[in-house]
Amino acid sequence: MSRIIFSSPSTLPRLYSTSRRIVKMSVTQTMNPGVSSRSMAVKPPSHPTYDMKGVIKLALAEDAGDRGDVTCLATIPLDMEVEAHFLAKEDGIIAGISLAEMIFHEVDPSLKVEWSQKDGDHVQKGLQFGKVSGQAHNIVVAERVVLNFMQRMSGIATLTKTMADAAHPACILETRKTAPGLRLVDKWAVLIGGGRNHRMGLFDMVMIKDNHISIAGGIINAIKSVDHYLEQQNLQMEVEVETRTLEEVDEVLRYTSQTKSSLTRIMLDNMVVPLPNGDVDVSMLKDAVEMINGRFETEASGNVTLETVHKIGQTGVSYISSGALTHSVKALDISLKIDTELALEVGRRTKRA
């Protein structure tokens, strides 16, 4: 089986053209080469093992296969230089600008990327918000990978912004329902959209859910086991427990009032009840928040939509988590065009610009 090695430009004769002199782009830190300080408006969340550069290389490799871009090799002279413009085809929050710079840098460090917007800014349909100039072959090779990331991230950021504004004063969180391999990318987009990150994975927070409770033989047994484990391992981290009834909430409150516990947050799961008329009843959620009375952080989960999130946010709950921010994302329509006049003409004809 043939392999693609990304160790140096000289090993990539079929993938990227590298005949021009290489010029390093400005960097904000060594872990993010090719990212300008202005574009890094929101830093990515931290993860102990996530390899962002590896994700970029994998995305490029799956596109290039074992031959590279045969269409570019056939139609574009290796020494041709062009300028291509990013065009928003619908309104939304732009995200992925910093990641786009990393991808262009990986393909060809001599490409020059400029932006009129930064991650988190609102863009309107028809706006040209950035450009990349340099070797045409390498711009076209990077184009689809850049757009795939930017469109997904911008879609997440756009939905997050809408949800976060509606949820106020509660904070909106995503979940672990992210695209496999894109956990950090998806959660970065949530931050760009004005949301907050829930736990990154299984390692950075204890989250006692229904299956843990069932296996442990009850909610108090599960909390006791977690307290014992953390003490035994000399670990300090946030601990959340899922409750599904007011009786479970009361059980947790009675136990933690009598015993020292590591518990920091109580999830109030499916306490938002859908009504036949399309509205929701949040009285159970509100009762639970009042019972807890600030002793612990609270998190509402279940039946969270654009239509319900405002009402949920008014109950006094600390956080509202929504898997839909990342698992049901609608990509924001963005394109990268060399002939922008023709692109706009086509866009106007199809009502997309």
Automatic annotation (TrEMBL):
Residues 156-337 form the Quinolinate phosphoribosyl transferase C-terminal domain. It is an enzyme of class 2 (transferase). Pfam families: QRPTase_C, QRPTase_N. Its EC number is 2.4.2.19. One of its GO terms (molecular function) is nicotinate-nucleotide diphosphorylase (carboxylating) activity. Residues 69-154 form the Quinolinate phosphoribosyl transferase N-terminal domain. Keywords: Glycosyltransferase, Pyridine nucleotide biosynthesis, Transferase. GO terms for cellular component: cytoplasm. Pathway: Cofactor biosynthesis; NAD(+) biosynthesis; nicotinate D-ribonucleotide from quinolinate: step 1/1. GO terms for biological process: NAD+ biosynthetic process; quinolinate catabolic process. It comes from the Eukaryota. It catalyses: nicotinate beta-D-ribonucleotide + CO2 + diphosphate = quinolinate + 5-phospho-alpha-D-ribose 1-diphosphate + 2 H(+). The keyword Oxidoreductase does not apply. SUPFAM superfamilies: Nicotinate/Quinolinate PRTase C-terminal domain-like, Nicotinate/Quinolinate PRTase N-terminal domain-like. The keyword Transferase applies. InterPro entries: Aldolase_TIM, NadC, NadC/ModD, Nicotinate_pribotase-like_C, Quinolinate_PRibosylTase_N_sf, Quinolinate_PRibosylTrfase_C, Quinolinate_PRibosylTrfase_N. NCBIfam families: nadC. Belongs to the NadC/ModD family. PANTHER family: NICOTINATE-NUCLEOTIDE PYROPHOSPHORYLASE [CARBOXYLATING]. This is nicotinate-nucleotide diphosphorylase (carboxylating). It comes from Salix dunnii.
